[in-house]
Protein: Dirigent protein
Organism: Acer yangbiense
Amino acid sequence: MAKFLPQIIIFSILSFAAINLVSAESDGYARTLDRKLFGLKKKEKLTHFQLYWHDIYSGTHPTAVAVVSPPSNSSGTLFGAISMIDDPLTEGPELSSKLIGKAQGFYGSAAQEKAGLLMVMNFVFMEGKYNGSTITILGRNKVFSDIREMPVIGGSGLFRFSRGYVQARTHKFDTKTGDATIQYNVYVLHY
Ligand SMILES: *[C@@H]1O[C@H](CO)[C@@H](O)[C@H](O)[C@H]1NC(C)=O
Ligand SMILES: *[C@@H]1O[C@H](CO)[C@@H](O)[C@H](O)[C@H]1NC(C)=O
């Protein structure tokens, strides 16, 4: 037994060190992890995507549906209206151009004086190396401004720990149907 003692001591020290690498601090259910193990010591990348977002109310396959009607339009901004969306995101402005992903979520009129939407949506990528990864956009959309900026508040897959912003510009809007094509420029920091 005694002759194994040094090995036991060395093993204990090593395993203690290994545990220490993972959990510098532990509090039962919570522990501090080594950032390196999550790739967080790498330099963050800044990626730009230019996509077109198609909100389609017309026809037999709408991608946007009004799920809540406002009790009245006395505000003039349809305050309280909510639409659920599963909007195609394409490479070019034409709906027939390459499908890159979907914008899934909802938006609602959150302003009573000047038109302003609360946008809550995930851009779900379906193409190339980003396939399956998502980014989450949550922000205020002043629809009648030329450029609307909204924050990217996080993501999944290749966009874990991401942050950034988007700029939206109206490319086409049909006042009769409500159909819209919006250009989205996405700037996202991720590892
Ligand atoms: C709501 O009111 C505004 C301002 O009066 C008007 O421009 C808009 O067309 C109305 N919307 C609906 C759906 O009635
Ligand atoms: C994206 O991933 C899904 C699920 O893994 C797969 O079915 C699909 O073929 C992929 N699409 C592309 C364009 O790679």
Notes: Confidence is low (pLDDT under 50) at residues 13-20.
